[in-house]
Amino acid sequence: MVCSDIIHLDLLGTPLIVVNSLKAATELFDKRSSNYSDRVGMNWNIGLMPYGDLWRGHTDQSGTACRKGFHQELNPRALVTYQPSITSATQKLLLLLLDKPDDFLKHLRYMAGNTILSIAYGIEVQPENDPFINIAEKALHAAALTVNSGSYLVDQLPVLKHIPDWFPGAGFKRQAREWNKDMSAIAVVPLEFVKGAMAKGDFTPSVASRSLEKLASEPSSTAQRQLEAEKTASTLGTFIHGLVKNPDAMRKGQIAVDERTGGARLADFSDFGSIPYVDALLRETLRWIPLTPLSVPHRSVEDDEYNGYYIPGGATVVGNGW
């Protein structure tokens, strides 16, 4: 039934479980997280790598403990050190919006990319045709087309990966090679830039430089930050879209900000939590148009049962944000 807490679909023999309620999502993804924390398997991205020793914090070949390193750099106390980078990128965004308001989507991508690259690599990107932004956008395009389960027939029939490139229908293999180049570049090129800057003694402290100083230079952990740029830009775009369609809400939001700041300055991190109407607007943006309506796919480790529903091990499990 479509109104059920969970729905089972069969994709050419591969089970797909859609979780439709908060109750079911909490039970499966939170309370039974050990069985549903597995992912589709992209080892260069901590958010998509399979659940196992590498993700839990054991070191890999380069000495990196993925979860441990991620938490060290992105815990609440550490985030305070990133506020100047975020503030600087935001101020540049406002100037770009004043200068060329029609290009606001491009400006949002620049702002998000500038923030992420500055924090992760200490890289200051350019507003126009920045090579690092171009690399990131190619990789993000590839990731968007491949991350969802069932995107290609080979997802349901793994045997197809063994067919020769010249075989009819094997175009996905050639496409995969191109995407692999793009995804490799997003992990390697910025890191090589940091290595070169450090060798010259002319670099901005960043997640990558600190990792390199600890002899833990694993590209996959820092490549994760690149993917956050597109999510940030998309969310900001939705926020602006919502304000344009609801001018009354925009006016109320401006009044709330002016009451807090006196209309004499821009709101900043010191105002966080003190403008409840704006906080509500942001939460409504995330509810109104979820960034990933079906979430990033999980994978069940073992057979399970929920309210009489059988969930086989190895099934793809997604949460329905709508």
TrEMBL record:
Alphabetized Pfam families for the sequence:
p450 (PF00067)
Which cofactor is essential here?
heme
Q: Which domain of life is it from?
A: Eukaryota
Q: Extract the coiled-coil ranges from the record.
A: none
Q: What UniProt keywords are attached to this protein's entry? A: Heme, Iron, Metal-binding, Monooxygenase, Oxidoreductase
A GO molecular function annotation here is:
oxidoreductase activity, acting on paired donors, with incorporation or reduction of molecular oxygen
Q: Does the keyword Zinc-finger apply?
A: no
- Tagged with keyword Thylakoid: no
Q: InterPro entries annotated for this entry?
A: Cyt_P450, Cyt_P450_E_grp-I, Cyt_P450_sf, Cytochrome_P450_fung
Among Gene3D superfamilies, the record links this protein to: Cytochrome P450
Q: In which pathway does it act?
A: Secondary metabolite biosynthesis
SUPFAM superfamilies per UniProt: Cytochrome P450
| Stated family | Belongs to the cytochrome P450 family.
Know the name of this protein? Uncharacterized protein
* Species of provenance: Tetrapyrgos nigripes
